[in-house]
Amino acid sequence: MKVSIIENSPRVMRVDISGIDYGTANAIRRVAIGNVNSFAVDSVTFYENTSAMFDEYIAHRIGLVPILTPKDYDEKDEIVFSLEAEGPGTVYSKEMKSSDKSVKVANDAIPIIKLAEGQRIRVDGKAVMGNGKRSAKFQPGIVSYKTKNGTDYEFYFESFGQMNANEIMKRALDIISSGLKDVHKELKK
């Protein structure tokens, strides 16, 4: 097996892996988009909403804002994001204030809602850990590959911002490795 990095930036990683088969390539892709955990706002409590938009619409918009996901967190962790704004003006993701300094919005410039003069919004959103199998809002990025020949694959990892693209690949490989170790342990019994 040979691994060659073609591009490695925080948002995009392109890597060539030779000496693997189609099943292995597809496993890497599927685990990266479906099993790598990241934070997303999963429930929103509205205290005030005098905007023209329904609570559910605003909650959906907030839920799609990518949240930075450091490595030292797990499924038991919950982070509260508070948002309070008054119009006129556009409310952006940077106005979501986190209860944990390490976990914050990944992109400050995502518009959530436009408020008119005198309109207000005050909400708390609870971010929890999840993965792409549960909902697309937990998916940390997109992953694809193309076959260069029978055993040579070029992978493309693009992060939505929750973690760097190379971190998506590392976490996916860790999940695959851990799963294989568990199977191996069970077979030894």
Question: Which terms would index this structure?
Answer:
about 190 residues, alpha+beta, Gyrase A, domain 2, RNA Polymerase Alpha Subunit, Chain A, domain 2, 2 domains, four-stranded antiparallel sheet
Q: Can you walk through the features of this model?
A:
The protein is of the alpha+beta class and about 190 residues long. It folds into two domains: about 1-35 and about 140-189, 2-Layer Sandwich (Gyrase A, domain 2), CATH 3.30.1360.10; about 40-135, RNA Polymerase Alpha Subunit, Chain A, domain 2 (Beta Complex). About 25% of the residues lie in helices and about 40% in strands. β1 and β2 form a beta hairpin. α1 crosses α3 (about 165-189). It is elongated.
Name the structural class.
Answer: alpha+beta
Rg (CA only): 20 Å
CATH superfamily of the largest domain: DNA-directed RNA polymerase, insert domain
Range of helix content: 10-25%
Oligomer: single chain
Q: What general outline do the C-alpha atoms trace?
A: elongated
CATH class of the largest domain: Mainly Beta
Main sheet attributes: strand count, strand direction, barrel closure: 4 strands, antiparallel
**Total individual domains:** 2
Which strand order spans the largest sheet, edge to edge or round the barrel? Answer: 1-2-10-9
Q: How many separate helices?
A: 3
Based on the coordinates given, report the CATH architecture of the largest domain: Beta Complex
The total beta strand count reads 10
- Report the sheet-strand fraction: 35-45%
- What order do the helices and strands follow? EEHEHEEEEEEEH
Low-confidence segments? none
